[in-house]
Amino acid sequence: MRLSTWYPHPVPSKSEKSRKSLFPTITVSHSQTHCDCTQSSSFFFFHLQTPKLSLLESLSTCECDPSKSPHSTMSTLSSRLFTITDQSKLASSSSTFLFPLFPSHSRSFSRSSRSSILYGRTHVAKPIRASASQLPSAASSVTVENSESESDPSGTLFVIRARNRIGLLQVITGVFKVLGLHVEKATVEFEGDFFVKRFFVTDSHGAQIADPDSLDRIKKALTDAIEDGGTVSMGPTSPTTRGVMVRRPGSGLGMSLGSDSAKAERMFRLMDGFLKNDSISLQQDILRHVEYTVARSRFNFDDFEAYQALAHSVRDRLIERSHDTQLYFKRKDPKRVYFLSFEYLMGRSLSNSVINLGIRDQYADALSQLGFEFEVLAEQEGDAALGNGGLARLSACQMDSMATLDYPAWGYGLRYEYGLFRQVILDGFQHEQPDFWLNFGNPWETERVHVTYPVKFYGVVEEENLNGEKCNVWIPGEVVEAVAYDNPIPGYGTRNTITLRLWAGKPSDQHDMEAYNTGDYINAVVCRQKAENISSVLYPDDRSFQGKELRLKQQYFFVSASIQDIIRRFKEAHSNFDEFPEKVALQLNDTHPSLAIAEVMRVLVDKEHLGWNKAWDIACKIFSFTIHAVIAEGLEKIPVDLLGSLLPRHLQIIYEINFKFVEELKKRIGLDYNRLSRMSIIEEGAVKSIRMANLAIVCSHTVNGVSKVHSELLKAKLFKDFYELWPQKFQCKTNGVTQRRWIVVSNPSLCALISKWLGTEAWIRDVDLLTGLRAYAADPDLQQEWMMVSLDAMFDVQTKRIHEYKRQLLNILGIIHRYDCIKNMEKSQRSKVVPRVCIIGGKAAPGYEIAKKIIKLCHAVAEKINNDTDVGDLLKLVFIPDYNVSVAELVIPGADLSQHISTAGHEASGTGSMKFLMNGCLLLATEDGSTVEIVEEIGADNLFLFGAKIHEVPKLREEGSPKMPLQCARVIRMVRDGYFGFKDYFESLCDTVDGGKDFYLLGSDFESYLEAQAAADKAFADPNKWTQMSILSTAGSGRFSSDRTIRDYAEKTWGIEPCRFPSDG
């Protein structure tokens, strides 16, 4: 067990210079007696206090007996009281307190009445209980006095004389702790059956206590605590008496003990410390979970079972931090942001969690002693399949930043059972299989069976009279229960741990039981399947009516449960909805959660009976909206008939919102019917629809794009009418990614190198410090360390969702051109070719045939090139199947060149480029999305730009593509002629480029693309230049951290402030 002295004294900071304050003291007292030989002898008394017992040892010394000399007596006593064990293990402990023990036996002792023993090394000690005959009698009397004549420069002296009993010293030090006082030094003397305890105490500023009233209060508190048997209202156990941080029930967490304070106090004392993170404690936790959570023998378990136990052990630490964070938020009652996103790509949680908790090395050490490797167990974890592409990963990065920056935040989403799909490549063709990511459970989540909300569908709306006023009552035709699953999100360098709450669909107990009770078992099973289907699959195929309905069900299920949860939390502390905008900010991440606006209006008007105008005023103050679409075709629309059937009350509300908005708009712009039609929430046409983006803009107080280019497109084209009406609403929030995931977790070698050259790890939280690398970009020593991987071949990577506008086809055509050039070279010329390994990865949507053909073409070209002995190692092409976050963590750190070659004006932001940039990868890119801002930050000389500009694209399309360059025509002809096989299959793919149908401008940009590739080859041939460009890329990546994005949201959109949980618990 960890043993601490009764004397509390924290480890001093490095800035403390006084050796006097470095270590605490413990005093040995003795009295003079005579032994049988009439020689003078001494009787030594030692007292030791632990959280569980009070120890007293005594030994006599005699000058006539060498075995009873003071020296030998001290040696004997030291060996009797303490058994020093395995100091090396303690060295890895995270404890922040020193525990003074007896020094080596060679130390001499004076024969004064008090001998101070100083010891400055940390040990683990095993106590030996004193015999009953050595303990004083139970009766005791108490006197407390302040002796000014014996005051010490280190503090005010309190002298306490009392009969000893178990726990007495713990009570005394607990009183000092509760009163905010510091014990600078303490001594203990023995007088017959009494102990005299002397404490030199200072106030919270390190000064002596001179105020008479303060002294009286302290003396009274000590007297009361000692006479009352040790009860201190705030919990007397100090952190040092346990050797761990204490979780107190007092003001830190704002927890009221209530009427049954004794019971509450007992519960806190039973679990008053945070879980320990030393090697032995971690091993015990892991084995406990092997035995009791995984239900395996601790003598026989494999890597996966070890991972499960390890994950639960880490989750225990996340949960205690999460609980304390939420209690602290509850006490402080800050304004909170609620982040509504339809998808999240969290990746693996283990490595990220232990790094953010600061205990990665401790776990690695603990596992190695159990015979496991941390890296091997981390590979056992699968990716949580809760999203698809950049939007989902962006949401995950933003949650990490919210936690790290201490913002009071909640994330909400859906707990998809199967996620998107698992990509399997057979004979070069993509096949989709369900991603059963929950087959073995998810150790990171906690099912909150007590947090459930009814979600209604279908039915009718009826009018009823309530207190003489008409009100609408929605009588549903179907009710489903939303069950909460909580996932902790730890911050880095902080104890704050926020929550991502995901909802899963379950059948309503009432309807389920009614079906069973009436014998309609089939209907009961069908109802259960319908309920569970709501959260089964991410983005069901919406080409059919059933698919459209299921997708709408998902969206409303998600927002209804979330809004109910948010309002429930608000009403726990507030009764007046006028305060709602002061305590709640709702962020809509794209149009998927836009139904939350109608749901908030329904709850405020129909359930809380606020009245329409007041409810609308509140709604307009709490919502903000982030748009990720670039073109009008990407904006979500819901057929009116479908919405009216599934959510009849919400359709009424949206119609009412639109009516009031259009009437107000007429007053502002007049009867400009074309503009009124464009801005209306209701789109007229063959299929009348609800424009969800228009609804979100009308209600939100802030609307933002996700890059400068994107934001300008919104204002100039996509929502020009709204911008002219409300210019103050529109903002720019350039997306970012978290450096903790994309450098610290995925590239630890680079992380260590950056910290070494910057001389600090502070950049992990303050990423702007990366600019300090610019001063060393030309330093040969840094360049040498930067080039740890051989530059014999360039790793050229393009990994993202397969889509025509992302132009993977342009990349493949460029690879074919390179291959053709190499084939036609003389052998002497080939020696000048820069070897390339081209890597492509990404998924195509199941119904997107052109994208699937691009994947097949990639495999057909790879098979040809990789087996051509003439080309050899000069060119290779690899397709990575089932690309996800974990694969990205392997690919991105190893990339030399990354291609971001979307047609200009089609990429809203593009966070992939930011991840590669942070890892020192050079970019080959068009001026699209965030690339423009990257150029501003690192300079155009440090990346390879090509292609038409955004303003040139519309004109090129209007004029039609000019004559296709010969190089492009040649490679297209090779594909058409069946050089790579599947001639007929690729015909339609070639048609998208050839024959004047080149909508995404592959032909127009082809020559420029080849020039950029040639520039990349030339730079790569100069290792020093390439390395300098790489260093400058990393140095300029700080601007593209999600920390900056979230701080911008917090200050300019949400109006929230950090709420940091105190580090001392």
TrEMBL record:
Keyword Glycosyltransferase: yes
CDD domains, sorted: ACT_UUR-ACR-like, GT35_Glycogen_Phosphorylase
UniProt keyword annotations, A-Z: Allosteric enzyme, Carbohydrate metabolism, Glycosyltransferase, Pyridoxal phosphate, Transferase
GO CC field: cytoplasm
Cofactor: pyridoxal 5'-phosphate
Biological process annotations from GO: glycogen catabolic process
Boundaries of every ACT domain copy: 157-236
Residues spanning the membrane: none
EC number: 2.4.1.1
First-tier enzyme category under EC: transferase
KW Lipid metabolism (keyword) present: no
Record's signal peptide: none
Single GO MF descriptor: glycogen phosphorylase activity
A Pfam family recorded for this sequence: Phosphorylase
Catalytic activity: [(1->4)-alpha-D-glucosyl](n) + phosphate = [(1->4)-alpha-D-glucosyl](n-1) + alpha-D-glucose 1-phosphate
Highest rank taxon of the organism: Eukaryota
NCBIfam families assigned to the protein according to its UniProt record, in alphabetical order: P_ylase
Family: Belongs to the glycogen phosphorylase family.
Function (record text): Allosteric enzyme that catalyzes the rate-limiting step in glycogen catabolism, the phosphorolytic cleavage of glycogen to produce glucose-1-phosphate, and plays a central role in maintaining cellular and organismal glucose homeostasis.
Protein known as: Alpha-1,4 glucan phosphorylase
Species: Prunus armeniaca (Apricot)
